[in-house]
């Protein structure tokens, strides 16, 4: 029993250590709720969020739009990326961490989604993690679902 308690304590300390990521900007919302912004004229928005779930919760997901890394998304966070209208490629992969390295990370899927955006349009993408191997998942949802899911979320770490 004593070993179990020590192990549980060690895991909770390790999980808490992954709060700062090298290269991440410090311009996150700092615990304040994020409001959905309006779409700038002649642009489109990709709104990415990650629900508060246990699967994959100890790791960040790196989001790439058109080959450029744009955000590190953790559970309970949201990121709005302003893009030019047209076809955009969004890819999600698990960010290596103390708890997720080596073969386990190499075997995870890196889902990619092509989305076609019109000027003034917002695409809502829900990020998640597979319950079996914690591989990232991505799916498009409607605006009402995204608004309900992201109530009280904080800003993701922009890259």
Describe this structure in words.
With 159 residues, the chain is α+β, with helices and mostly antiparallel strands. It has one domain: Domain of unknown function DUF5300 (Immunoglobulin-like). It has helices at residues 2-17, 102-106, 143-149; strands at 44-50, 61-65, 68-73, 77-83, 86-94, 112-117, 122-129, 136-141, 154-155, 157-158. The radius of gyration is 16 Å and the shape is globular. The model is unreliable at 1-33 (pLDDT under 50).
Which keywords apply here?
single chain; 159 residues; alpha+beta; Immunoglobulin-like; five-stranded antiparallel beta sheet; 3 helices; 10 strands; globular
Determine the strand fraction and express it as a percent band.
35-45%
Distance between the termini: 42 Å
Query: How would a crystallographer describe the biggest sheet?
Result: 5 strands, mixed
CATH superfamily placement: Domain of unknown function DUF5300
Low-confidence stretches: 1-33
The string of secondary-structure elements, in order, is HEEEEEHEEEHEE
Described by the principal axes of the CA atoms, the overall outline is: globular
């Amino acid at each position: 029993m004593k070993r179990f308690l020590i192990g549980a304590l060690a895991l909770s300390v390790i999980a808490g250590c992954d709060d700062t990521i090298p290269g991440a900007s410090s311009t996150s919302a700092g615990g304040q709720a994020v409001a959905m912004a309006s779409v700038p004229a002649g642009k489109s928005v990709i709104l990415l969020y990650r629900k508060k779930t246990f699967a994959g919760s100890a790791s960040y997901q790196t989001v790439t739009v058109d080959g450029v890394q744009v955000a590190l998304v953790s559970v309970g966070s949201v990121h709005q990326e302003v893009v030019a209208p047209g076809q955009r490629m969004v890819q999600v992969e698990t960010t290596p961490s103390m708890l997720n390295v080596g073969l386990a990370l190499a075997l995870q899927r890196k889902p990619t989604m092509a989305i076609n955006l019109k000027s003034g349009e917002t695409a809502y993408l829900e990020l998640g993690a597979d319950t079996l191997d914690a591989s990232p998942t991505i799916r498009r949802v409607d605006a009402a679902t995204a608004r309900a899911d992201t109530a009280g979320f904080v800003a993701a770490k922009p890259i």
